[in-house]
Write a structure and sequence with these properties.
Layout: E1 3-6, E2 12-15, E3 30-37, H1 42-55, E4 60-67, E5 70-77, H2 83-91, E6 97-103, H3 108-114, H4 118-135, E7 144-152, H5 155-167, E8 171-177, E9 187-195, H6 199-215, E10 219-224, H7 230-234
Antiparallel strand pairs: 1-2, 2-4, 3-5, 3-6, 4-5, 7-9, 7-10, 8-9
Length: about 240
Amino acid sequence: MSLYYTDEEGANVCVQDFYPDENIYEEKHILLYTFIKFDGENEELLEIEKKLLEHTPKLDYVGWRLIDGWAEFYFYGESAKGFEKSINEALKPAYQFESGNRKDKKHETYYKLLMPNTQEYHNIQSEEIIADLEEAGDDLSIDHRIEYHAIFQTSTQRKRFLESIEEDGFSFLNDFLDEKAEDDFVYGIVFTKLSPVSIEDLNTQTKMIFPTIDREHGRYEGWGTNVMAVDEEEE
């Protein structure tokens, strides 16, 4: 599954294979990259991508970043042999570009540069939920009861989290024990905030939520709300 998003630096990013819980490049520790001077449209970017893939069939394609007039393409491979020649054949003489390679045994470029961080991934999910709300006729400017979900390994962690989050203006809704969990995260909690629904409002709230969850070694599970139409507000 490919993932497209805008990161916190303002770069447009494509992760070719988005599998956050798997190391899909485990056997390939050489990072190969080419940075292309680019100010064209998406159609041209896809044509460049196609040419690069045609000339690098033995490499694992990771994805691209588009920022500050440069298109950055990344690959992993077992070696860098033949990479420069392949890139030259794909891009010369049409484009100005730079390319190189380095060891990346921990695949840090994939995890830290291309994969979305917690806040960026939250934004991706939020945009999808907001789009669904708008399609259902929701008035996003109305105060909604936004329900946030988190889960912890112990009831003590959950209790400390609730105490902290209530100080930040959130309200407790309910807690539960997930007896079907496949790991040690079984102590769930649902807490709420009255707020309009926008990326800006949600980010303000999650900037309070995420550090508190991390401090208690918990896991954020997302948010949801009910559709609020204009006539509901008037009633």
